Amino acid sequence: MDLEAQQVSEAESAREQLQDLQEQIADHRRAKQELEAELERQKQELQYTQEDLYRTKNTLQGRIRDREDEIQKLRNQLTNKTLSSSSQSELENRLHQLTETLIQKQTMLESLSTEKNSLVYQLERLEHQLKNLQGNSSSGSTINMAAVDSTEVGTRMRNVPVLFNDADTNVSGMYGKVRKAASTIDKFRYMSHFHSSFCPV
User: Disordered: where is this region (predicted)?
Assistant: First the structure.
């Protein structure tokens, strides 16, 4: 009688362990789906940001060319000996201002390129983390769990695969990185719009 009670207890414990594992697997799948959806959204954000960067860069380059042409015209005028001293002073001031503006715009272009490279790197890192998460779902450690035999209860043991360990901690860490990258994208888009309106011609 005691043996039968022990076998029933072991069978119940095995069922509880199996249920826990199934719940963990379901949680893991939901977390992976959410991460994949977030990654897809961030890819779209990056694409929009790159398009904004391209337009802003072209606009700035066009303005730089206009400034360079104006600077060259002013230099040509400065070489004309018939200019009065007051006109020459104004032209020199204007030349100085245009030169400073040119330097600022070139600095903006370098900053935009740096931001783009940073975003691309973060996206590649997120894709790598997602691949690791998918790889962990196909392999893992195993635990021994009691099972109920078809003819007699609970004297045998079998292995049940554990698809992941500490899933909550790992997923939370990845979400933190995803959110951080998304925040960086938003900041970058703001900078792009700000640069496009900075120092208008």
Answer: 1-36
Q: What's the CATH number where 37 sits?
A: 1.10.287
Q: What distances in angstroms separate CA 12 from CA 6, 16, 117, 145, 153, one per listed residue?
A: 10, 6, 55, 11, 11
* HSE-up of residue 148 (Cα within 13 Å, Cβ side): 14
Residues 61-91: pLDDT tens digits?
A: 888 889 888 888 888 877 765 556 666 677 7
For 95-160, give the DSSP string.
HHHHHHHHHHHHHHHHHHHHHHHHHHHHHHHHHHHHHHHHHHTT---EEEEEEE-SSSEEEEEEEE
**Nearest Cα to 161, choosing from 131, 139, 146?**
139
The number of domains in the chain is: 1
φ/ψ (deg, to 5) at 164: -160, 160
- Please, are residues 38 and 178 in contact by the beta-carbon 8 Å criterion? yes
Domain span at 42: 2-197
Record the pTM. 0.34
Rounded CA gap, 192 and 188, in Å?
Answer: 6
CA atoms in the 13 A half-sphere facing the CB of 173: 7
Distance between CA atoms of 107 and 153, rounded to whole angstroms?
76
136: its two tokens: 């962990």
